[in-house]
């Protein structure tokens, strides 16, 4: 495994005496350790008074070792991230992980966690993410890489077309997000991506495209698993989630029926969809 200088992380709550109340939330593409705050809080499924919640930043995201902050950075696979996170949890004294929950690339890391450390992970919740980068997903990413040649604003504008569903645009649901017209919504996506370092965005795509967890690895997962795709996700598709869930012994497929596409699973972004995610967390934690 490549040696990385820094894995940045945030924790909420305290580790119990048995060192087995850890909930791990790997970050996603362009996400940080602040990205799951919409689902963390007292009285919530992710209650820091009960759970030791660890949110490690993905390598390449601009917070952990990344091209923008580490001159010695080398590209990291999903497995590199998981092994680095495993070392982090060992340093924190964690013996067992009650739940690995992730959205998007966080789900990719969750699948790898359950496959690489089956005796350590009790439960897995994979929301709008897959264990591998399927062909359509790869084509989507190659297109994004191509638009980067025109700059980050073009990258963000192109990404918006994939992140939500056809129904989202047809019904002008962006109005419910506070935008007066479609152009304002697209400019928001431009502005959001302008805030990232181009090298970091491309490094995370490099990681994403090389997610290749095998059928055998999926079959070796022993964690209680809920795979939760969105029926209108255009690049982490329902069909491919169904294929992967069928490979994991005892896995449950719970489908988010939503017009918000891939973004339906974004932590805390949409109330009804977040409530379904939270219900799945409660089910897996037995809370």
Your description of this structure?
The protein has helices at residues 78-92, 105-116, 135-147, 152-163, 166-170, 182-194, 198-209, 215-219, 238-247, 271-285; strands spanning 9-12, 22-24, 52-56, 97-103, 123-127, 224-228, 252-253. Strands 1-3-2-4-5-6-7 form a seven-stranded mixed beta sheet, sandwiched between helices. α9 links the parallel β6 and β7 (252-253). The radius of gyration is 18 Å and the shape is globular. The longest helix has 15 residues, at 78-92. The chain has 287 residues and is of the alpha/beta class. It is built from ten helices and seven strands. It folds into two domains: 9-131 and 213-285, 3-Layer(aba) Sandwich (Rossmann fold), CATH 3.40.50; 136-199, no CATH class.
List keywords for this structure.
single chain, 2 domains, alpha/beta, 7-stranded mixed β-sheet, 7 strands, Rossmann fold, about 290 residues
Give the SSE order as H and E letters.
Answer: EEEHEHEHHHHHHEHEH
Number of strands: 7
CATH class of the largest domain: Alpha Beta
- The SS-based structural class is alpha/beta
* Number of domain units: 2
Sketch the major β-sheet.
7 strands, mixed
Structure described in brief:
The chain has 287 residues and is an alpha/beta fold. It is 39% helix and 11% strand. It has two domains: 196 residues, Alpha/Beta hydrolase fold, catalytic domain (Rossmann fold); 64 residues, no CATH class.
